[in-house]
Design a protein that fits this description.
The protein is α/β, with parallel strands linked by helices. It folds into two domains: about 1-35; about 35-250, Leucine-rich repeat, LRR (right-handed beta-alpha superhelix). It is about 30% helix and about 20% strand. It has helices at about 1-35, 35-45, 100, 230-250; strands spanning about 50, 65, 70, 75-80, 80-85, 95, 110, 120, 130-135, 140-145, 155-160, 165-170, 180-185, 190, 205, 210. A seven-stranded mixed beta sheet has the order 4-5-7-9-11-13-15, with no helix packed on it. It has a five-stranded parallel beta sheet with strand order 8-10-12-14-16. Strands 1-6 form a two-stranded antiparallel ribbon.
């Protein structure tokens, strides 16, 4: 009787183990078949892009991130999570689906430089935790709303150089306390440079626009090349340079 009881107990345990193994196997198939939320988000983002052959290798049966290693081209990974996208020099165009990217909890960097995106700048406030946004060398055009960057308090780097952007430089950029690098050269911005006062600012380039008015005091330490190509501002730089030379000459005469 005792032996029979042990055999029955062993059989039940074995059956339970087999059931658990089968369930685990089925779940693994389900996860592989239907992907993960991160995979689904990126595939939804991809679907809105035109000429997206450069990222056709994105495979829903493989996780985008394997700890620090990326399994999908252009995906930046950190601790197994999607940290950002670096999709540069790929001739991409179409719509930038920010709603697809917004649910990604660790998403901090988006680089779409050197592509063929055009039209108005999308509403990047939807990605409020971005630290770096690189969009230079596309064909974005039109005015940028003054509040376009409100609430993006983590933003450190913004590259919008060499597009077709017009109107005023959004004043909301001057409210971003962590902003370190700002590249706006090669557009058609008009009006005055916002009164940037961030002590963290290391690089600002607004050259080759249609800006006028004074250079903010906080930016006056930057190289004149950062402001070249803006006729009104260039006159200020030339006058200041000539005054400096005149004063030095007078001091040594």
């Amino acid at each position: 009787m005792v032996m029979a009881a042990h055999v029955a107990k062993f059989a039940r345990a074995t059956t339970s183990s087999l059931v658990l193994l089968v369930l685990a196997f089925v779940l693994s198939i389900v996860v592989t078949s239907f992907g993960s939320p991160d995979s689904d988000a990126l595939l939804k983002f991809k679907d809105q892009l035109a000429n997206n052959g450069a990222i056709n290798s994105w495979n829903p049966s493989v996780k985008p991130c394997e700890w620090e290693r990326s399994n999908w081209v252009g995906v930046l990974c950190l601790n197994g999570s999607i940290r950002g996208l670096q999709l540069e020099h790929m001739a991409l165009s179409g719509d930038i689906d920010l709603d697809a990217l917004a649910p990604l909890p660790s998403f901090r960097t988006l680089s779409l430089m050197d592509n063929n995106f055009d039209g108005p700048l999308p509403d990047f406030k939807k990605l409020g935790k971005l630290k770096a946004l690189y969009l230079s060398n596309n064909r974005f055009s039109g005015d940028i709303p003054d509040n376009a960057f409100e609430g993006m308090g983590s933003l450190k780097r913004l590259y919008l150089a060499n597009n077709l952007l017009t109107g005023k430089i959004p004043s909301s950029l001057a409210t971003l306390s962590k902003l370190m690098e700002l590249k706006l050269e090669g557009n058609q911005f008009q009006g005055q440079i916002p009164n940037f006062q961030q002590k963290s600012m290391k690089t600002v380039n607004v050259a080759n626009n249609e800006l006028e008015g004074p250079i903010p005091e906080a930016l006056s330490r930057l190289s004149p090349h950062s402001f070249a190509g803006n006729l009104s501002i260039q006159e200020q730089i030339t006058y200041a340079t000539l005054s400096c030379i005149f004063n030095l000459s007078a001091a040594f005469s």
